[in-house]
């Protein structure tokens, strides 16, 4: 059931103010940082034809409000935040795991926690689909859910847990904070057959990646900003080993990768590319702790993209946004602004409210 109270409108109206005070102003006007674009890279080129985003948080998604659990479970968001922090301190990889789960969930039938479900009556789950087999953090989500069930039984949805945990995880690794509207319900079923068609693989081409995001309503600029989440986490060698040993069957590495980077990647993956140790996505040398940020884009310009889908952002019209985000302090600020706005948009994709939605007691079971 969707709850509305007299204060919900005021809470939602506060979203814009919160975004602006967090240096993530979401006004509909053009960003001042568009001035960083060279004249020959203006919107008259092959981009999306817009210097500003089509989405504004003032367009309230149906069923979502700010502070949905204020009356039914007033400590809900604090419980999520504290548990996510505890899990992160025990294992820093938990942050990237929560963010990836959120992305992969929302890209199918919206943010409905369908990605968390186990098989139902023997039917394959979204977790069985190839793009999702490397997902981690399912147990971490259940730990958050268990604490919420102890405090407020059958109240807080797994879909809202994912949305909140992704934001809280990003903050822990140095990312921007942004408001998360709540009130989502959980799906009673998964959508295995749709995962492969909607989620691009790590080796997807430039065109496939852009098309996948465009079909979910994201512009080029938003897509490049969202892929900045690849500045954190780790990736297994099997997702990029073809680029460092025999790219496209040539017997040579992908020539778009910096030669030193090829050696770093081979050192992690071993002679056959099947090394067990995953490679850090931080785009710095192994062993150096790095957090969320626009350093990702600077490394792409230097040919140090680990995934093909990352490096190809420098090969087409999207390179203009890569250059802007990599342009120092102003570019970093613009990236954080754009990323925050795109995450608000992602969190608003097709929220499930009312029948047939439900609140699962365990996130893996309907």
TrEMBL record:
Q: Where is this site: Transition state stabilizer?
A: 100
Cysteine disulfide partners in this protein: 73-152, 106-111, 158-363, 237-269
Question: What InterPro entries does the annotation carry?
Answer: Haem_peroxidase, Haem_peroxidase_sf, Peroxidase_pln, Peroxidases_AS, Peroxidases_heam-ligand_BS, Secretory_peroxidase
Keywords from the UniProt entry: Calcium, Disulfide bond, Glycoprotein, Heme, Hydrogen peroxide, Iron, Metal-binding, Oxidoreductase, Peroxidase, Pyrrolidone carboxylic acid, Secreted, Signal
Q: Which residues bind Ca(2+)?
A: 105, 110, 112, 114, 126
Please give the superkingdom of this protein's source.
Answer: Eukaryota
Q: What is its EC number?
A: 1.11.1.7
Q: Active-site positions, per UniProt?
A: 104
Please list the residues that bind substrate: 200
State where the protein is found.
Answer: Secreted
Write out the similarity annotation. Answer: Belongs to the peroxidase family. Ascorbate peroxidase subfamily. Belongs to the peroxidase family. Classical plant (class III) peroxidase subfamily.
Instruction: From the Swiss-Prot or TrEMBL record, give the protein name.
Output: Peroxidase
Organism from which the protein derives: Oryza brachyantha
């Amino acid at each position: 059931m969707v709850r509305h109270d007299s204060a919900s409108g005021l809470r939602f109206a506060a979203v814009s103010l919160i975004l602006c005070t967090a240096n993530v102003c979401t006004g509909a006007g053009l960003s001042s940082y568009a001035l960083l674009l060279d004249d020959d890279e203006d919107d008259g080129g092959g981009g999306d034809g817009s210097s500003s985003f089509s989405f504004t948080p003032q367009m309230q998604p149906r069923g979502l409000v700010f502070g949905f659990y204020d009356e039914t479970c007033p400590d809900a968001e604090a419980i999520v935040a504290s548990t996510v922090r505890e899990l992160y301190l025990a294992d820093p990889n938990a942050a990237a795991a929560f963010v990836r789960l959120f992305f992969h969930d929302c890209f199918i039938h919206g943010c409905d926690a369908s990605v968390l479900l186990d098989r139902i009556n023997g039917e394959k789950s979204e977790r069985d689909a190839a793009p999702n087999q490397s997902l981690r953090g399912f147990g971490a989500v259940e730990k958050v859910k268990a604490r919420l069930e102890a405090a407020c039984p059958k109240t807080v949805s797994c879909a809202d847990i994912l949305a909140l945990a992704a934001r809280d995880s990003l903050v822990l690794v140095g990312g921007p904070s942004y408001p998360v509207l709540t009130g989502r319900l959980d799906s009673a079923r998964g959508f295995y057959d749709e995962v492969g068609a909607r989620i691009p693989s790590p080796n997807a081409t430039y065109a496939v990646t852009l098309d996948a995001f465009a079909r979910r309503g994201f512009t080029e600029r938003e897509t490049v900003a969202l892929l900045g989440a690849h500045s954190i986490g780790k990736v297994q060698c099997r997702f990029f080993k073809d680029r460092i040993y025999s790219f496209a069957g040539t017997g040579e590495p992908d020539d778009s990768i910096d030669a030193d980077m090829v050696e770093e990647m081979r050192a992690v993956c071993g002679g056959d590319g099947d090394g067990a140790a995953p490679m850090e996505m931080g785009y710095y040398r192994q062993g150096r702790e790095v957090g969320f940020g626009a350093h990702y884009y600077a490394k792409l310009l230097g040919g140090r993209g680990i995934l093909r889908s990352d490096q190809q952002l420098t090969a087409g019209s999207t390179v203009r946004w890569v250059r802007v985000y990599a342009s120092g302090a102003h570019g970093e600020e613009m990236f954080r602004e754009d990323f925050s706005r795109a995450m608000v948009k992602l969190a608003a994709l097709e929220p499930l409210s009312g029948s047939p939605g439900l609140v699962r007691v365990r996130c893996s079971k309907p």
